[in-house]
Amino acid sequence: MNPNRLLIYVAAFTIMGLSNAVIPILPELADLSHSPAGGFASSLLFSAYFLGALGTMLPFGILADRFGNLKFIGLGIVLTAISGLIILLSENFWILLISRFIEGSACGAFLPAAFAILSKLRNPGRYIGELTFLFNAGLAAGAFLSGLLADIYLKGAILIFTVMTSLLTVYLFSKRRQIIYPEITGSSDSLQDSGEFRKTYREIRKIKALLARDNFGLWLSAFLLNGAIGVLVAYYPDYSLGIITKAQLGISISSLYICAMISSLLAGRFKVKEEALIRLGIGFSALGALSAIKYPLLGFSSLGGGSGIATVGLALAVARMNTNKGLVMGLFNTTIYAGLSLAPIIAGFFTDFLSFEKMFIANGCILAGALILKDLSADRNINI
Question: Which residue from 19, 140, 138, 26 is spatially nearest to 80, judged by alpha carbons?
């Protein structure tokens, strides 16, 4: 296997694992830190990660085109290790909030660069499917281990994945010359023209064309899909208190990512049109979002399976756009993290007068509404 692809795969697993190791213990972390935000604290700790990713995904995607994707792969790994150490050692709410934001920024550096590298390979559907499989494997492992170890050591899963990302950081420093100067080692991911930084502003202007009406359904469906996931994952730990154990919660949430692993791997290998994948995935996801209210394991499994299918379809549609891969993948991941970060915050404003159950019903119905969207395939004729 190409060493760059191997690094991306291992990093995807560890970065996603650490990000999700926090989820099952959000209420406990908020209580431990004596949060001044009250019951809204769990949602803030959840959303801070995705706000970090949202704010950095697009600029890092643009800069990766200019300076080389491998450099941003390395930046994502280093920032993840730093944030993991802070979360592990601190109990201050504001420090935890900042470290979650840094952790999200690490994801913002990593994902567009990873998607860009893989989308340039000969069989992008297969490799994007494998990447989706591995970061869902990391998310599943993080949630499962966190729920399993919570009663033994609250931050046990955080410790495990922090150690793993720290080891990856040590490896990066041993390979720093190949990453900083990829052209010396013959890597195909080198910067073509380091003097092109002045073109970055013109790259930003391309966003207007990418957000054109013909692509609106694509971006909105990505937002709604991940917004529905964000709302359910952010509020389910509080909703399930006293109903299911931490281990059961960890298993239920991890089933989302395990099913997404399997479905994304399969979806990436079949010759099916992108729009069909997106609609099929959204349908299963909406069914799962509603089912999870009474049947957490079944609901999260269906939500995950559907999201894995839809994500591969969305990524393939976006990858076929005729523009710089770092830019378009940055925009794609920005819509994903916009949903994951903003939807739980918006939902938080309704928690005072809506029960969790009613909020989850509305969440599933909104996602189902994405099925009526038109033009769920990219405009391949776009020429930027």
Answer: 19
129 neighbors 267 (Cβ within 8 angstroms): yes
AA letter at 321? M
* Structure-token pair, residue 159: 């410790």
Q: Cα–Cα distance between 137 and 10 in angstroms, integer?
A: 11
pTM above 0.85, yes or no: no
**CA 50 – CA 367 distance, rounded (Å):** 19
Measured CA to CA, the distance from residue 371 to residue 277 in angstroms comes to 12
How far is 287 from 368, CA to CA, in rounded Å? 8
Look at residues 180, 207, 225 and name the one whose alpha carbon lies nearest to residue 324.
Answer: 207
Nearest-angstrom CA–CA distance, 100 and 86: 9
Decide: 24 and 147 in contact? Cβ < 8 Å: yes
Nearest CA to 20 out of 66, 84, 86 is that of: 84
pLDDT digits (tens, 9 = 90+) for 252-284: 988 998 898 888 878 867 777 888 889 999 999
SS3 46: helix
Mean pLDDT over residues 42-65, rounded? 84
Element (H, E) at 301: helix 296-319
Q: Which residues contact 365 (CB under 8 A, 6 or more apart)?
A: 286, 290
Domain 3-180+204-372 indexed as CATH 1.20.1250.20: yes
Q: Give residue for tokens 């994801």.
A: 107
